[in-house]
Amino acid sequence: MELRSGWVLNLTGTLTPYREAWELQKALVAARQQDLVPDVLILLVHPPVITVGRSGKREHLLLPPHLLEAKGFAYYEIERGGSATYHGPGQLVGYPILHLRAYNEDIVRYMRNLEETIIRTLADFQIRGERVRGYPGVWVDGAKIAAVGVAVKRKVTMHGFALNVDPELSHFQVINPCGLGKPVTSMAAVLGRPVPLEEVAQSYTRHFMETYRLALTPVSLQELRGRMEKADLVRLPG
Fold this sequence. Notes:
Blueprint: E1 4-15, H1 18-33, E2 39-45, E3 49-52, H2 65-70, E4 74-77, E5 84-87, E6 91-97, H3 107-124, E7 130-132, E8 135-140, E9 143-153, E10 156-164, H4 187-191, H5 197-212, E11 214-218, H6 221-230
Parallel strand pairs: 1-2, 1-11, 3-4
Antiparallel strand pairs: 2-6, 3-5, 6-10, 7-8, 8-9, 9-10
Helix pairs in contact: 3-5
């Protein structure tokens, strides 16, 4: 089967504020809906932030938003599925902007494949990740190592996953992650040693391409802005 073409935007070398990434996703989703850009995988790392999805409940926050912000956590209520999630340094976050027509508009298949990309990445580091029926994400020995939560806008995906490479696990104590009351772990905690995030990003990109049958060409944020603006497409933030 011939691979489809796409772009990968790897921003993991610096911290990307959540609002900037959110606006970037929305701009790319609008362009992808019109077939003005191909499928895009965004990989990045956020400063500490708490996001709450459509099914979020106030009791899933162990501190009110104003106290979270006072402790240095940004706070956003967003359109993805799921409830409260933490993002921060040491965590690989991925936002696929994919048109679902290539997957027969099967959102369940898309979500299972997203989990599969994470499971295959963990296997490269001798970690056995698994699914737990009824609980989206990827788990290791009963602890959650990766969260998944997406939104679909006119058949185009946004948001995605967060894989705990080596984050500050104490930061998860300000929320009940996704309202599950389950422990959280990381690749570094499982292996007992530091794990370079860039190595994980490279492994993940390879498995994403294999799983979704995509040939991704690296693109910088500057190049992406230039390509879109040259074609008089949606203007990217920043």
